[in-house]
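Internal tracking record. Fields below are filled automatically when a chain is submitted to the structure queue. Please do not edit lines marked as system-generated. If the sequence contains nonstandard residues, flag them in the REMARKS field before resubmitting.
Queue: standard
Priority: normal
Entity type: single polypeptide chain
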Amino acid sequence: MSNVRGTIVWVAAIIAAVILAGSITAARADTPRRSAAVVGEEFAIDGKPFQNVFGEFQYQRIPGAYWQDRLRKARARGVNTIATAPMVSAAVSAVAVRAFAFDDIRYDFASALPLGGLPAHDHLAFDPVQRVAALERSTTRPRNGSAAGRTTLSEIAHPLPTLPPKKMAWVAGSCAGCKGADNSHYHTANQPLVGFDAIKFTMSPRVDTAPNDYYYWAYETGFMNRQQFYFGLQPNGQFGKTALFSVFGNGTSSNSRYRYCKAGADSGSGTSCHIPYNWKLDHFYDFTVTLVGKSRTSEEWQGNVYDDNTGTKTFIGDIFVPASAGYIDLNRGGAFEEYFEYGSYPCPREPYTSILFLTPTGYWHGQPSTSAYANLNANSGCNVKFYTDGATYAYLDNGH
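SYSTEM-GENERATED OUTPUT FOLLOWS
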């Protein structure tokens, strides 16, 4: 059996993408350039047959500090070629995958695939800041991408959505009885390897029953290093009607002269910005989080809220995070409806509320990518009902 035919079927698909590049590139300056070719049904390096023993390394799931250890362990087990398969759609994977062959972990297959892919091994940065920079360099800018080099606020449209029907039959969410707020999760098929540099999420409060309306209607996701953030509306928050934007974790900060941002997030580490915001029932509100500044050590992310009915934009706050946070990962995101005074007003004393959530949109260099609903979860919400088309919107009802 030939070398290529002896390889597992899924590996063959990866190889098909790898050979698009046509050469091996030395990952270090002191390593001579080597050639790769397909001779008949075999791979050859410098004209000599090369038996690929593949392993897949999903680097986006593994902290950068462990990359070198995992790669060397794979080499010790007999693996001589690593395939890196980004968690994106199959269509993108077919041309975005990369592989490099071990020679003391030095050589890199496929240095110039059409959609970028994983950078050469010099840039398989075990320093997470270098890793983010390398991934960004290797992610192709869209053909009609933003001239600013990142998505600007002017490139995010805010049309007034059409109110979707609230279907008579309600859809029971999965995981009924699980702990936590009722929520909805989404899937973004075309997320860039590096993540998004901006997002938009739309919500519309439909029913709010005072006085004990201690609700938080929010969208939560995180950066590529798994550092979480969320934003949303509260009818009975710090300022009564409140809009907020928070990032969790160590290393965050804000402009100390801006009075609406402070240290701490949800009783833990992080930074939170809460503003008085007189939102209206039945209006549509777009929340945006955009990258507005970046240095070697930090990223600056700005939160804004737009009233689509009036066309007005309101600044919430800027929050600085470590540069190692990376860009935004929408595939970890979900919207939720939380009643945070359940200890004082347990079900069935929780007042009735209804919130409409649309789906998030991610942006990379000004180009949008839409999402769809992945699942709905009732969890431990009170009298939870969902009304949804299963793709583009969901009403979340809670309380009595």
